[in-house]
């Protein structure tokens, strides 16, 4: 449990372990499709940056061994693994919230054409 007290601002609160935040599921993911897609993009970008950082660190290590760089690479790999697992959960949640789309057998969907009614006069210029 964490208690927060900021008397000057009148803020007092408590965070209990395992407490749920409104609008989030048990994995801490939002129930909103747009928020999930934004979170997915953010997590993918973070993974890309961590992978880029590791490539740069590997380049420095090729020139000279450095224990701190080696440790940073290992920490980045741990974070990348965690973020990839989160991305999997996000992808599953997006599929759950995405409504199914009807598909035609050929993949082509013809545009809707209004059917003429017997009461409607023919368009101007079409005298039959």
Would you write up a description of this structure?
With 128 residues, the protein is mainly alpha-helical. The chain has two helices and two strands, in the order E-E-H-H. The chain has a two-stranded antiparallel ribbon. Strand 1 (2-6) and strand 2 (11-15) form a beta hairpin. Helix 1 packs antiparallel against helix 2 (67-97). The radius of gyration is 28 Å and the shape is flat.
Blueprint of the fold:
Blueprint: E1 2-6, E2 11-15, H1 33-63, H2 67-97
Antiparallel strand pairs: 1-2
Coiled coil: 33-90
Region (Disordered): 102-128
Biased composition (Pro residues): 119-128
Number of helices: 2
Structural class, by secondary structure, is: mainly alpha
Q: State the end-to-end CA separation.
A: 82 Å
Radius of gyration: 28 Å
Q: What best-fitting shape do the alpha-carbon axes yield?
A: flat
Query: What is the H/E order?
Result: EEHH
Q: What is the topology, as strand order, of the major beta sheet? A: 1-2
Task: Specify the biggest β-sheet.
Answer: 2 strands, antiparallel
Mean pLDDT: 84
Helix content: 40-55%
Task: Work out the strand percent.
Answer: 5-15%
């Amino acid at each position: 449990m964490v208690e927060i007290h900021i008397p000057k601002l009148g803020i007092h609160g408590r965070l209990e372990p395992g407490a749920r935040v409104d609008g989030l599921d048990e994995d801490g993911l939002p129930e909103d499709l747009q928020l999930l897609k934004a979170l997915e993009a953010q997590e993918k970008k973070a993974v890309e940056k961590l992978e880029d950082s590791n490539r740069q660190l590997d380049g420095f290590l090729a020139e000279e061994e450095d224990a701190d760089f080696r440790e940073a690479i290992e920490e980045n790999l741990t974070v990348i693994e965690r973020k990839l697992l989160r991305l999997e959960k996000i992808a599953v949640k997006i599929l759950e919230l995405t409504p199914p789309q009807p598909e035609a057998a050929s993949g082509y969907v013809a545009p809707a054409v209004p059917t003429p009614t017997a009461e409607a006069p023919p368009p101007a210029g079409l005298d039959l």
